[in-house]
Write a structure and sequence with these properties.
alpha+beta, transmembrane helix, 6-stranded antiparallel sheet, SMAD_FHA_dom_sf, 1 helix, elongated, 11 strands, 5-stranded mixed sheet, about 140 residues
């Protein structure tokens, strides 16, 4: 009887290990698939979220492509919606003018930070700039430069 129970536990344990391995492989596959589905062109600019997405209590994408004038805020009418309580309904706007990107705060309550400094006026963005909005940190990437 003990030999039969031992065999059953052995096979159940092997099944659990296979399910664990399958789950890990599935997670890796889904992660790779989501990276490939990014719709970023060769010469487009985008914002990359620097924060760990799993540490946030709201959903965010990893990348946000900037096309034309891009508004960011808590309101669902914005192009980039961040459900952080420290983000204003209409927080900031990033505009492309003559091939250059400019950022401007829209009189937000908690301010916008560019490379650690409070943003007071319309400022040109350069590749690698860090944008702080609430608890979120973005990295500005301009692939055309």
């Amino acid at each position: 009887m003990i030999a039969i129970l031992s065999q059953i536990f052995k096979y159940v344990f092997i099944l659990i290990i296979y399910l664990f391995i399958f789950t890990i492989i599935r997670m890796i596959y889904l992660d790779i698939r989501s990276m490939q589905s990014m719709d970023i062109g060769k010469d487009e600019a985008y914002l990359k979220v620097v924060n760990r997405l799993d540490s946030l209590n709201f959903k965010m994408q990893e990348y946000y492509v900037l096309r034309g004038a891009t508004k960011l805020g808590r309101s669902s009418k914005n192009d980039i919606v961040i459900k952080d309580s420290f983000v204003s309904k209409n927080h900031l706007i990033i505009e492309k003018e003559n091939g250059h990107y400019y950022i401007r705060d829209l009189n937000s309550a908690n301010g916008t930070f560019l490379n650690g400094q409070t943003l007071y006026e319309k400022t040109e963005l350069t590749n690698g700039d860090r944008i702080g909005v609430g608890f979120i940190q973005f990295l500005f990437v301009d692939q055309s430069r």
